Amino acid sequence: MRGRIVVLSWVAVAALFSLLLACDGVQGQDESKGKKEKSEKKTDEKARAKPEAIKATGTISVTKDEKGKVTDATFASDDGKSYKVLGGKKFEKLDGKKVEIVGMAAEKDGEMLLKISKCKEAKEEEKTEKGDKEEKPEQKKKPAEE
Known about the structure:
Shape: rod-shaped
Number of helices: 1
Oligomer: single chain
Strand order of the largest sheet: 1-2-3-5-4
């Protein structure tokens, strides 16, 4: 009788061990599904956040706190797009000015971000009407002889 109890005990231990392994396997599948879903979400985010090179003209606006420190900067392009500028402190001197920029733009959490690599103040083009002649600085008009 005692031999049967020992055998039954070992069978019970083996059954419990098998059950634990089976449960862990099921739980492992759930965890791997969760990991797979998370990696798919990250892939989607990376696909949306793929930076694109841009060259544009527009206006930089700087936001300051009550102490006068720059807290934020935005770039509004002439074609109507708006970007949050990364590293906005560098552009404090260009606040409200028309600039030409070259940089990389990407979307993150529904907001367009812009990393500017080159920035210069835009030149204003002088427009003249047809038929008007512009005077060159080196040309001087001779006084009329009397």
